[in-house]
């Protein structure tokens, strides 16, 4: 049955079409993802957002400001448990490794889109810090971070039943084969059985259904989804904590073979982050864009946010909480700042 959008909301098909145009623009007009040194503030903003929201989906209570302080300055701001700080730190370390694979795959990479060593590495990196202070109470010595479970998982409340633990290694190998086959089709522009976002949804859901680890499967699954994306030349995605209910409901529908809702959620997330890279490159000097897209080596994202809040930078804060301004406004702010500094020096 075709998806019908709610009133005023783009249809799923139009979301996919919009995403296809943005992907084509990224690759054909802009030459792919920018190097971190060319767009460091944008990469860092995505990093902070992903580490915050992906751990919050699992119940972590650090707010974005605390995550930024932890990752940006190494400061544990607030009065949260060590476990929660370590959850964010571990996830962030794993995400940073994933991002690095967009441009410079390391020695773990064997030419396949994903391999089993990388599946284990993602889980090991994300979960070791939290395991050090709060290991899973049922884990054996062979079930720590990076190791597949040797326990059966009880069926989930919605009915999903992960495979018995002796089947996990073979199921993971099969999942990797599916990932690589899909990736090869994308790279060679071969016809996919579903729209790309729904193929990604299928792969993400399949990993979660296998549930290969005793704990941390949601975090590992989202990190691996982003590893697939960056290896294909696309920016990582962020599932926001406010989308938790929609995300879980979409995963349940995917369990029953309907990948549309999860595909649409992924498509919207892909488009949002594509805009972080595309808009700064194609927007005119007066177009409003997120502050992350306007930060440079001369003015940091933190400085722009501070200036916006103090009214020194002509900027607006949207209903999503994101500050937006224009290149023209930033140039005017910097010129005024330079003028004030010169007057102080003259005095």
What does it look like?
The chain has 347 residues and is an all-alpha fold. It contains twelve helices and three strands. It has a three-stranded antiparallel beta sheet. β2 (316-317) and β3 (323-325) form a beta hairpin. α4 (82-100) runs parallel beside α8 and α5 packs antiparallel against α8. The longest helix has 23 residues, at 260-282. The model has no long low-confidence stretch (mean pLDDT 88).
What tags apply to this protein structure?
347 residues, mainly alpha, three-stranded antiparallel sheet, 3 strands, Fido domain-containing protein, Fido, Fido_containing
Mean pLDDT over all positions: 88
Binned strand content:
under 5%
Radius of gyration based on Cα positions: 21 Å
Order of strands in the sheet with most strands: 1-3-2
Summarize the main sheet: 3 strands, antiparallel
Reading the helices and strands in chain order gives HHHHHHHHHHEHEEH
Span from first to last CA?
73 Å
pLDDT < 50 stretches: none
What oligomeric state do the depicted chains represent? single chain
Helix content: 55-70%
Helix segment tally: 12
Q: How many beta-strand runs?
A: 3
Quickly give the structural class: mainly alpha
- Shape, per Cα inertia axes: globular
Brief characterization of the structure:
The protein is mainly α.
How is the secondary structure organized here?
Elements: H1 12-29, H2 40-56, H3 64-73, H4 82-100, H5 116-133, H6 168-187, H7 196-210, H8 217-231, H9 244-255, H10 260-282, E1 289-290, H11 301-310, E2 316-317, E3 323-325, H12 327-346
Antiparallel strand pairs: 1-3, 2-3
Helix pairs in contact: 1-10, 2-3, 2-4, 4-5, 4-8, 5-8, 6-7, 7-8, 7-10, 9-10
């Amino acid at each position: 049955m075709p998806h019908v959008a709610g009133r005023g909301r783009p249809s799923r098909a139009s979301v996919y079409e919009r995403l296809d145009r943005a992907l084509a623009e990224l690759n054909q007009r802009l030459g792919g993802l920018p190097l971190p040194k060319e767009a460091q503030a944008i990469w860092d903003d995505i990093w902070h957002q992903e580490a915050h929201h992906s751990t919050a989906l699992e119940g972590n209570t650090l707010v974005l400001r605390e995550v930024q302080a932890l990752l940006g300055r190494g400061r544990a701001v607030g009065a949260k448990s060590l476990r929660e700080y370590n959850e964010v730190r571990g996830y962030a370390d794993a995400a940073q490794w994933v991002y690095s694979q967009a441009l410079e795959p390391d020695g773990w990479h064997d030419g396949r889109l994903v391999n089993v060593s990388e599946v284990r590495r993602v889980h090991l990196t994300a979960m070791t810090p939290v395991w050090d202070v709060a290991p899973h109470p049922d884990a054996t010595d062979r079930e720590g971070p990076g190791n597949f479970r040797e326990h059966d998982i009880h069926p989930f409340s919605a009915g999903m039943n992960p495979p018995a633990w002796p089947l996990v290694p073979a199921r993971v190998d099969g999942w990797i084969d599916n990932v690589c086959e899909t990736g090869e089709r994308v790279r060679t522009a071969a016809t996919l059985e579903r729209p790309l976002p729904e193929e990604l949804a299928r792969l993400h859901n399949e990993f979660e259904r296998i549930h290969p680890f005793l704990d941390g499967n949601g975090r590992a699954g989202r990190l691996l989804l982003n590893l697939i994306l960056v290896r294909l030349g696309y920016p990582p995605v962020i599932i926001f904590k406010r989308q938790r209910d929609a995300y879980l409901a979409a995963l349940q529908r995917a369990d029953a073979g309907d990948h549309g809702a999860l595909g649409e959620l992924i498509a919207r997330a892909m488009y949002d982050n594509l805009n972080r890279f595309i808009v700064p490159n194609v927007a005119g000097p007066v177009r409003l864009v997120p502050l992350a897209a306007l930060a440079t080596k001369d003015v940091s994202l933190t400085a722009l946010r501070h200036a916006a809040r103090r009214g020194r930078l002509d900027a607006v804060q949207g209903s999503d909480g994101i500050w937006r301004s224009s290149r023209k406004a930033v140039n005017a702010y910097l010129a005024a700042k330079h003028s004030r500094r010169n007057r102080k020096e003259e005095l």
